[in-house]
Amino acid sequence: MNNMERPLTEHILVNGPPLSLKEYEKTGGYEGLRKALKMEPQEVQEMVKNANLKGRGGAGFNTGMKWSFVPMGPNAPKQKYLVANGDEMEPGTFKDRLLLEGNPHQLIEGMIIGAYAIQASMGYVFLRWAYKNAAAAIRAALKEAYEAGYLGERILKSKFSMDLALHTSVGRYMCGEETGLLNALEGKRATPRAKPPFPQTSGLFGKPTIVNNIETLSCVGHILKNGPEWFKGLSKTSEGGTKLYGVSGRVKSPGLWELPLGTTMREIVEGYAGGMQDGYEFKGALPGGASTDFLIAEHMDVKMDFASVMEAGSRLGTGTMIILDDKTCPVGMLHNLEHFFAQESCGWCTPCREGLPWTEKILLALEEGRGKPEDLDHLAFHTRYLSPGNTFCALAPGAMEPLQSALKYFKEDFEKHIEQKRCPWK
Amino acid sequence: MRRLPHKRAACIEALKVVQRHRGWVSDESIRDLADYLEMTSDELDNVATFYNLVFRKPVGRHVILVCDSVSCYIMGYEKILDRLHARLGVRFGETTPDNRFTLLPIPCLGTCDRAPAMMVDDDLHRDLNNKNIDEILDQYE
């Protein structure tokens, strides 16, 4: 285990200061950019595509492939954008914070390479308001990068020029949704946009735009520097790279670890997180944030990669697990989750605006002992009618994932609330 | 602003500047800003009221934002909240009579391995329990 590679986090000092430009350069930083600038933009796209880097924000789409949808060549729009999505607001998710606070140049290098690959002349880091230390780290790193000639006119004396700026949000979960984020950057409400057109052809201010997650972009410099085969070799599956895995809840050592993609849930929960605290038993886990389906004890040996978790009936999502223990009421937990989603719904489409508060109210009624047998049918009804295709964006379908799986795995617990006319955990 | 194609694109930045200096965003500020950004007051208010952290009502000298999301729920944030209610005598959305604290809920603060968590102004406080919460509050006059 000792010689396991952790390219994204090995130089980060937890709770220490971020890597300065000098320190980052000493670790081989910006070598990937130097290589990229000697390649054709499409070659850079191709290299990242071959590394099979899947989007770390949760969707798991091949990053190089996403870049390849941007119009290129002399007839393409002159103005294009690259945006780093640092609006980490998925409940239970705390991975991008470490990368932003610990190694901002790693992100900036990835962004410059990404911008070069799609020939974008402007980039934005979209950061959630709560990450005050991250904002300070990025501002300082941007200043250093400009002074050293990594940003601005004719980067490293090449023909490529770009600017990069920080936008700190004023808070709303919808800002993490790709098109909602673009509306927020334009100074509008962060409601989703209809697709098509996709942002790759018509995004920020109507121009071709790529939005990538912080962890995704932080991988890019390493891919350029060490090659796609090296990147694929970091993983235990066909999907390339390492992954930041996190565990929160009643485990002995909650935390965050960079591990090969495809590490099993057992290795993470029982190994790195030290297993459950004394007096608590594992009941289930949301594998990648609030909007993923529960996995239970029988899934402990599932590999935590995009394909394997999907096969097990859930999604890898952000890779930060939330553990449900036997002393926590699953209905209460679901009520907490649906309260969040109902509150954060932007109200743009009716099923989400009306459906989520309804599920929240039913769950509260169950918790308070006012539940009726038909309530379970109403909850199941919502999981069907708020599923993908019935709503404008992924918020409501995401909200239904923990609910539909809880109804499947913890149905008895719901029924007990109705039979006993109270929460058995209180 | 020089990088933006039109003035109104800077409206969220402008709201942040006003709030930083005044503590909150009044109707009067909305009107003044809207004129400057070449949009109507309604258009600007439409944006201002969408976001969680633009305050359209006055707040106290310090704003306490208590994470009410799932990991903090599992780790017992409700006990922290009870303690805050008892100590401050206010519920969510209210300000103490001495104008010292405003208490608000906030979605996940992204520090779930050290739940429960809250922010007071720009400071993040983690691993909260009934003992350290009093010490934390004492830091803010």
Would you kindly provide a written description of the structure presented here, covering whatever features stand out?
The complex is a heterodimer of chains A (426) and B (141). Chain A has helices at residues 21-26, 31-37, 41-50, 63-68, 96-102, 104-118, 132-147, 178-185, 214-226, 228-233, 265-272, 306-311, 330-344, 350-367, 374-385, 395-409, 411-420, and strands at 81-86, 122-127, 163-168, 209-213, 242-248, 255-260, 282-286, 320-325. Chain A is α/β, with parallel strands linked by helices and 426 residues long. In chain A, the strands form 2 sheets. Chain A has a 4-stranded parallel β-sheet, sandwiched between helices. A 4-stranded mixed β-sheet of chain A has the order 6-5-8-7, with helices on one face. Chain A folds into 3 domains: 21-233, NADH-ubiquinone oxidoreductase 51kDa subunit (Rossmann fold), CATH 3.40.50.11540; 247-325, Ubiquitin-like (UB roll) (Roll), CATH 3.10.20; 330-420, NADH-ubiquinone oxidoreductase 51kDa subunit, iron-sulphur binding domain (de novo design (two linked rop proteins), Up-down Bundle). Chain A is built from 17 helices and 8 strands. In chain B, helix 1 packs antiparallel against helix 2 (27-37) and helix 2 packs across helix 3 (41-48). Helix content of chain B is 39%, strand content 13%. Chain B folds into 2 domains: 7-48, NADH-quinone oxidoreductase subunit E (Arc Repressor Mutant, subunit A); 62-138, Glutaredoxin (3-Layer(aba) Sandwich), CATH 3.40.30.10. A 4-stranded mixed β-sheet of chain B has the order 2-1-3-4, covered by helices on one side. Classes of the chains: A alpha/beta (426), B alpha+beta (141).
